Amino acid sequence: MRSCRRCGIKKTDDAPVIARRISEFLYDYAPRFLTSSGHTLKGYRDALVLYFQFLQENGVSPEALSRLLF
After folding, report:
1. Which long-range contacts (CB under 8 A, 24 or more apart) does 62-70 make?
2. What are the pLDDT digits (tens) for 25-44?
3. Of 38, 39, 51, 65, most Cβ neighbours within 10 A?
4. pLDDT given at position 7
5. Cβ neighbours around 68 below 10 Å, total
6. Which residues on adjacent β-strands are paired with residue 10?
7. What 3-state class would DSSP assign to 10?
């Protein structure tokens, strides 16, 4: 674990863990416990795509998570 002296935030290499959790949510949890609607599931996925685009536009690179976008 590294830390950013300037901002006081600890940095970790958690991108693979985050990607796995998002994938579990989209493909396991949501269809099983939240909805069976394909349109709603697509809406969840689209919302995440928009969020990652927002992060990228603001200098946060979500490349480690890109395999979930399509």
Report:
1. 64/15, 64/16, 64/18, 64/19, 65/15, 65/18, 65/19, 65/22, 67/19, 68/19, 68/22, 68/23, 68/26
2. 999 999 999 999 999 999 99
3. 65
4. 47
5. 19
6. 3
7. strand
**60 φ/ψ sector (left φ>0, alpha ψ -120 to 50, else beta):** beta
Query: What tokens does 49 get?
Result: 């795509």
Scan for tokens 């979930």, then name that residue: 68
Looking at this protein, which amino acid is placed at residue 9?
I
- Given a cut of 50, the residues of the chain with pLDDT beneath it are 1-4, 6-10, 67-70
CA distance between the termini of the chain: 30
64, 17 contact by CB (below 8 A): no
How many residues can be counted in the chain? 70
Count CA atoms closer than 13 A to 6's CA, side-chain side.
Answer: 0
